[in-house]
């Protein structure tokens, strides 16, 4: 099997033991890598109903056949497990030196089970794999622990880390790397923490194998050159994802005051233009010539790496209109290992709950000091942070008094930074995302708005959501590569089947990669249904109540809100096109068509299939 190492590392934290396993070719052929590997391993090996924070949960770090090659932009990896935030399938994607190092150490994935008796970390150096004591690292923030581990194991190694948030099982915790790369929004940090796993450090020095390495390198070089010549390249290098903020403001979709509004009076003070004047340097993922992490100095004189989602959720969404202050909250999240989106949503929710007198916190809109204190409390799960750190869905249920009406999430995962009071297509993306409300799978909002379709609920929108899910959630998450060259600069999709063929020697086409995406989606859906004990119904795929029931009161979209009947029709169109039944469960025929007949037999133990 060229292109894959064919080996994964199993780590049993309870026993402190590691073992290399050669995996079956079927895993690579049917699921390719990254998210595909993760869901298949979880489906096969995780007992349904497992407590996500118990030793029995399975944590997967998975690369794909493109990872680590000199190809655009191949420094990413997927981290996945059953989510303690949603109770379903959870994953995230981060760029990290750990990705190429893992592949160069002769491995494609790491599968972690059990729970260590004391704080530990996994150390991989080519053929050496060990579980080491991390007692002296426990409690350290992610920046300090990475610096210490690089000191011990060399600067060329890559590290995946948690901060105090993961250690204390805060559900909006993430995995962090390189002081500003973060992945695994659905509580993947807490899953690491529940295993007493502080870090994974990887160093690999072997050459990567491929079906035709010279040709792959030639194609990679060509790809980098094409990217440099794209019209948008200069603009991207100046603002990266932060360019979206002005666009969202103008479109009335900038989350403001816990998604109550879509415009923010102080937006100009936190937008990409303001950031440009403050940027002191840039950082990015390995194997990338578009590096997009813009570093500014925060209100405490420390460096902080900004992205649109971070700024919108820790800025307009909580009423903070000063970019240096936003950068302070952002750096805190990176250090503590909190997901900026989840944390910004929880803080906004807490501000509104306080305003409504449902909880007693010393915090108000735009309150920097109150927000800092709350972020700390979330990470340490203390005081009100112990409730809010469960995520907005669970916290709202505990708080009661109608708090669930303004908890902004789908399936328990907080919405990323796009207000959908008048974006039914984007609302459908959030509703049907395989991990809860994340924009990563189908960011259709740009298409929906720029083509003048935002008022409509036409079935074409369901087609667009599926098209994007196939590309973004299927192809990019399993090959594994960053999607920004394509979505931001228009780097042609046709490059990717060529890369895959040259890496693996297996002929493929974009259509086959879409079928792969459909297979992965169906299996993730099956995973959720199995976890729900077959008790699955279509309302799980609905976006937050607020977008239907509380019209916007300001800006260009004043008075606008989603229409329930319209949304439900859109959802049905989506199910029909996917070959899922009215409950949103793949039918027997669909599972068979997607080469998932064996998996269908297992699913039938939990639910009657149509
Ligand atoms: C991602 C989510 C995002 S999506 C952002 S900003 W974005 C937030 N970033 C956080 C952060 O930073 N620190 C922190 N403590 N929490 C954070 N939470 C939020 O996490 C990221 C880029 C970005 S920036 C995006 S869109 C793209 N995402 C990709 C993806 O998902 N898949 C893929 N194949 N390519 C992608 N390329 C882009 O990568 P989650 P990163 Mg991230 C500091 O993981 O769980 O999916 O959440 O990985 O290396 O930081 O790069 O406007
Ligand atoms: Fe990482 Fe940005 Fe490059 Fe993508 S474009 S690989 S997120 S630095």
Descriptive key words:
610 residues; alpha+beta; Aldehyde Ferredoxin Oxidoreductase,  A, domain 1; Aldehyde Ferredoxin Oxidoreductase Protein, subunit A, domain 2; Aldehyde Ferredoxin Oxidoreductase Protein, subunit A, domain 3; 3 domains; 6-stranded mixed β-sheet; 26 helices; 42% helix; 13% strand; binds tungstopterin; binds iron/sulfur cluster
Write a structural description.
The chain is α+β, with helices and mostly antiparallel strands and 610 residues long. It folds into 3 domains: 7-203, Aldehyde ferredoxin oxidoreductase, N-terminal domain (Aldehyde Ferredoxin Oxidoreductase,  A, domain 1, 4-Layer Sandwich), CATH 3.60.9.10; 262-414, Aldehyde Ferredoxin Oxidoreductase Protein, subunit A, domain 2, CATH 1.10.569; 425-603, Orthogonal Bundle (Aldehyde Ferredoxin Oxidoreductase Protein, subunit A, domain 3). The strands form 5 sheets. It has a 6-stranded mixed β-sheet with strand order 2-1-6-3-4-5. A 4-stranded mixed β-sheet has the order 8-7-12-9. Helix 2 (34-45) packs across helix 19, helix 11 (308-314) runs parallel beside helix 13 (340-355) and helix 17 packs across helix 19 (460-479). The two termini are 37 Å apart. The model has no long low-confidence stretch (mean pLDDT 97). Residues 73, 75, 95, 284-285, 288, 290-293, 482, 484 line the site of iron/sulfur cluster.
In a nutshell, what does this entry contain?
With 610 residues, this protein is α+β, with helices and mostly antiparallel strands.
């Amino acid at each position: 099997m060229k292109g894959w190492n064919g080996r994964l590392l199993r780590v049993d934290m309870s026993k402190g033991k590691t073992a290399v396993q050669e995996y079956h070719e079927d895993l690579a052929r049917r699921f390719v890598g990254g998210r595909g590997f993760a869901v298949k391993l979880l489906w096969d090996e995780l007992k349904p109903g497992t407590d996500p924070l118990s030793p029995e949960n399975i944590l997967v770090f998975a690369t794909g056949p493109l990872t680590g090659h000199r190809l655009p932009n191949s420094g990413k990896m997927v981290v996945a497990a059953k989510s303690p935030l949603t109770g379903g399938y959870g994953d995230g994607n981060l760029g990290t030196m750990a990705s190429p190092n893992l592949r160069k150490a002769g491995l494609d994935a790491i599968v972690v089970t059990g729970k260590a008796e004391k704080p530990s970390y996994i150390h991989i150096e080519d053929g050496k794999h060990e579980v080491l004591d991390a007692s002296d690292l426990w409690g350290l923030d992610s920046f300090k622990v990475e610096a210490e581990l690089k000191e011990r194991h060399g600067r060329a190694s890559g590290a995946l880390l948690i901060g105090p948030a993961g250690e204390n099982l805060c559900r909006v915790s993430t995995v962090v790397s390189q002081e500003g790369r973060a992945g695994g929004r659905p509580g993947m940090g807490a899953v690491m923490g529940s295993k007493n796993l502080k870090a994974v450090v990887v160093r690999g020095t072997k050459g990567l194998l491929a079906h035709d390495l010279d040709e792959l390198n030639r194609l990679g070089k060509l790809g980098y050159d094409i990217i440099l010549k794209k019209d948008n390249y200069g603009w991207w290098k100046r603002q990266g994802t932060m360019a979206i903020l002005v666009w969202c403001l103008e479109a009335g979709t900038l989350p403001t005051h816990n998604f109550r509004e879509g415009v923010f009076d102080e937006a100009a003070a936190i937008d990409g233009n303001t950031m440009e004047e403050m940027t002191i340097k840039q950082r990015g993922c390995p194997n990338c010539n578009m590096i997009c992490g813009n570093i500014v100095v925060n209100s405490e004189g420390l460096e902080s790496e900004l992205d649109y989602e971070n700024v919108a959720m820790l800025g307009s969404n909580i009423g903070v209109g000063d970019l240096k202050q936003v950068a302070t909250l952002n750096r805190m999240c990176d250090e503590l290992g909190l997901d900026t989106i989840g944390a910004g949503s929880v803080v906004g929710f807490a501000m509104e709950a306080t305003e409504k007198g449902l909880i007693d916190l010393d915090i108000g809109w735009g309150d920097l000091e109150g927000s800092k204190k709350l972020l700390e409390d979330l990470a340490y799960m203390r005081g009100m942070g112990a409730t809010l750190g469960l995520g907005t869905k669970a916290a709202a249920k505990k708080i009661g008094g109608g708090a669930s009406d303004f908890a902004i999430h789908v399936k328990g995962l907080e919405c990323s930074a796009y207000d959908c009071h008048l974006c039914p297509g984007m609302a459908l993306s959030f509703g049907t995302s395989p991990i809860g409300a994340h924009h990563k799978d189908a960011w259709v909002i740009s298409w929906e708005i720029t083509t003048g379709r935002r008022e409509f609920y036409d079935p074409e929108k369901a087609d667009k959501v599926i098209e994007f899910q196939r590309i973004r959630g299927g192809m990019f998450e399993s090959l594994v590569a960053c999607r920004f060259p394509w979505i931001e600069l228009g780097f042609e999709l046709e490059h990717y089947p060529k890369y895959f063929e040259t890496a693996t020697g297996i002929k493929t086409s974009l259509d086959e990669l879409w079928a792969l995406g459909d297979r992965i989606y169906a299996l993730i859906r099956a995973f959720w249904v199995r976890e729900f004990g077959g008790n699955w119904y279509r309302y799980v795929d609905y976006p937050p109540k607020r977008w239907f029931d509380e019209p916007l009161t300001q800006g260009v979209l004043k008075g606008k809100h989603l229409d329930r009947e319209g949304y439900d029709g859109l959802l049905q169109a989506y199910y029909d096109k996917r070959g899922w039944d009215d409950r949103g469960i793949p039918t027997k025929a669909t599972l068979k068509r997607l080469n998932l007949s064996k998996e269908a037999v297992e699913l039938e133990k939990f639910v009657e299939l149509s």
